[in-house]
Amino acid sequence: MNVLILGIDGYIGWSLAMHLAKRGHNVSGIDDFERRKNVESVGSTSAIPILDMEERISSFKQIHEKDISFYEGNLLDYDFLQQVVRETKPDSIVHLAEQPSAPFSMIDREHAIYTQHNNIEGTLNVLYAMKEYVPDCHLVKLGTMGEYGTPNVDIPEGFFEIEFRGRKDTLPFPRQPGSLYHLSKVHDSGNVHFACRMWRLRSTDIMQGVVYGTRTAEMVDDSLMTRFDFDEWFGTVINRYCAEAVIGHPLTPYGSGGQKRGFIDLIDSVQCIRIAVENPPSRGEYRVFNQLDEIYSVSELAQYVVQVGKKLRLDVKIQPISNPRIEKEDHYYKVDREHLRNLGFRPTRRITETVEIMLTDLIKYRDRIMERSEVILPRTTWARGTGERMAEPRIWTKATALPQHSHTAAADASSYPHPTSSFATSSES
Ligand code: USQ
């Protein structure tokens, strides 16, 4: 199949490109490196070093003997987009080219407008390019479980049957998102559904849970790794916990820690997207997949990281901090997720196995995380808005983070002992 990946340079985009190319698909991708720039704009960087796109592609070709084509540009540039679509003639477009951070969208008015403009207008351009040049193409659109919010009833896959005043219908399940980023995805879902109904496009709208992990099967060399964010804005909760654990920063569950979310390993996220690509819906069909493996509360996750950290001789502490977001901390959460399983999705490994792989990978890059450790504690608040800084007492400082001997070795990651050898990272040791 010809697959065009929008946002090929991102955390999932690069992982997916390698997976699909290795599988024999003809993969092209678009990116304008906005994610790299946005992470840089908040003073952070990927904990795992990543190569430039040209170098990534040539390393992938050398190692896996497959080609990936790359086009640099932005979806908001319709001339650019339509030219790429006409040239690559995709059977499937996977749309990952959005600003994906809830806290980033909540910094202030400018970040909110940037997020919604980028995400909603970019998606509209994709829909128009499909309508005009490849109406038979399948759009795999990355939405989010956060579109639904946390209702006090079960969450179906997109639609539910409702009886109201004696009449019945099957309607989109109500959306109650918790950030202006999540809301941009709700607007996208409405536009994609509309394009399927009006223009007979076909689409799978994926309500994905929170993704975690450092590795997929194709990442057999350091040059093929994908980015890994740990800052307040772009790091997701498990990834942040693992980065915190390796530098001796206490894990940071927000509030009471009872918030439940659906989670999925990076390796399974690409597996699921591949399944969606290879099993397209019919013309005019708009279908919704809830893409997650298991549900956990953020406290439970912290416990898992402590447990695995112990195995690796890391002394991991938990220090809950006041919640910068407005969200329920004690709530019902039950989610249907049959569609992908019916098409063959099987989780690759248990969460604790992945956390072990993550901690082992990240220990190698402790100095990079340590250098940017000031981006870990949250400062963007939902309630006060306009980017006002949270007055969170500093509970951790670099100076107390590592035992003296590790500090002196910080410039050379390779001098850190292997996690299974006798060493511990602790603010107390
Ligand atoms: N959280 C903590 N401690 C932290 C970071 C987060 O307790 O250090 C909590 C948050 O308050 C929230 C939960 O963990 O209750 C998840 O937060 P997150 O930052 O990991 O994920 P979220 O903001 O929900 O967004 C991420 C991705 C987004 C994707 C979404 C899937 O950034 O692109 O859409 O996960 S979902 O959450 O299902 O909507």
TrEMBL record:
Its EC number is 3.13.1.1. Residues 404-429 are annotated as: Disordered. It comes from the Archaea. One of its GO terms (molecular function) is UDPsulfoquinovose synthase activity. Gene3D superfamilies: NAD(P)-binding Rossmann-like Domain, UDP-galactose 4-epimerase, domain 1. Keywords: Hydrolase. Residues 417-429 have a biased composition (Polar residues). The keyword Hydrolase applies. Residues 3-290 form the NAD-dependent epimerase/dehydratase domain. NCBIfam families: UDPsulfquin_syn (NF041015). Belongs to the NAD(P)-dependent epimerase/dehydratase family. This is UDP-sulfoquinovose synthase.
